[in-house]
Amino acid sequence: MALEEIRKTKIEKVEAAINAGLDPYPAVCNRTHKISEALADFERLSQDKKIITLAGRVMAMREHGGSVFFDIDDGSETDAANRLSSDGQIQVHVKEDVIGKEKFGLFKTLVDIGDFLEIRGFLFKTKKEERTLETEDFRLLSKALLPLPEKWHGLQDVEERYRKRYLDMLFNKEIKHKFMLRFKIIGLLRDFFKDNGFLEVETPILQPLAGGASARPFKTHMNDLNVDLYLRIAPELYLKRLLVGGMEKVFEIAKNFRNEGMDREHNPEFNMLEAYAAYKDYRWMMELTEKMMEFLTREIFGKTEVEYGGAKIDFKKPYKRLQFNDIIKEYAGLDYDTADGGDFKKRAGELGLKIEKTATKENIADEIYKKLARPQIINPVFVVDHPLELSPLAKKLPENTGHVARFQLLAAGFELTNAFSELNDPQDQLERFRLQEQKRKKGDEEAQRLDKDFVEALEYGMPPAAGIGIGIDRLVALLTDSHSLREILLFPIMKQKE
Question: Is residue 215, in this structure, part of any structural domain at all?
């Protein structure tokens, strides 16, 4: 039967329910127990023949003469933290002798797989020891107008799974579990920073100048003020203004937007946690990061070891430190401090890297690092002390002013964090912004903008501080053994169908 014909038949059932004096979409549900709760307390409830009311979606149906067995699922789990569970599903038995001929006729006429039902009855075990709810009464809660797909399992069109994530979670328990785990991770991150003395704050998403990162922004327009605004690419410059204002430790779980391509590690809309601590430096932040990763993995898995893509990764501290320049020497055979831009362009060609004509020495070094070195790093490593030109918001190293006090935590080929000792010298910051503007004039659309208001804030004085940005989506992908970010974003950006 064609889909539209099935839909028409189901609409006729809605009308039949109304004609029978039933509301196919009532506003109130009288559920007394989640299915997981009923199963957890099954022995007592069944022994006492206690009347309970469950509710859920009909997932399967089997007729046996004057009775029907069907399964309902309400999505509940006794342990949603770190294991799959079928505790949200139970078998239900509806029998003509129990509910009466008229009610049984309505059930057979009105109810289909996919509908939501409320069922009142008592628990018992069948001859096959299946835990079951015997129906004494039922009520339609929501009549589905489209049939659940029969061949969703093994669906080859991955993009269709992303477009219809609600069906993906309905049929793939492991996918639903990933999202349950995602939000547990976010909650644990929030708890960790609060427990370490950080205050959760909020900063603007709409900004007059997109700053705090090297990225191409999304642009919009506010009619009332007749001004162009940008969607936030990072909350950094606003969070550091709060340090100027006297807040000592702050963090924000921020939705950011960068007008860039999509791949395993990138989505134009993504989630970050940024945190800043006054009177600290990047080495302190490295120790806090190790502490955070141990906390997360122990809370989720009960150990510091996780599995990703078949590899076992141990987040037990301490982590190895690698100098950025040492990585460039290993993978490009060049010393960043002595080689020039021409040397790097030549080497990039030999390595088969596609480089923009406007790419500078630091851009090419960063591409070599990202494309060749980073995918090879599986166990947790801190890459430290990046070139000054790549880090316009970080403090220079006193012993090597061509590099900055910065680190990135890498694992499983993912860049999980970016952090540094924050630049608080307003004159140095102004000069760095001006250099960024020169890069922009030469065609670098991702170069940072000169934010005069932020420089002015620094001129009022900002204490020495350490800051970190944590890629929540990448962290979740790693901890859930997911190949790409789209697997752990509920509704990733997709190209629209015709």
Answer: yes
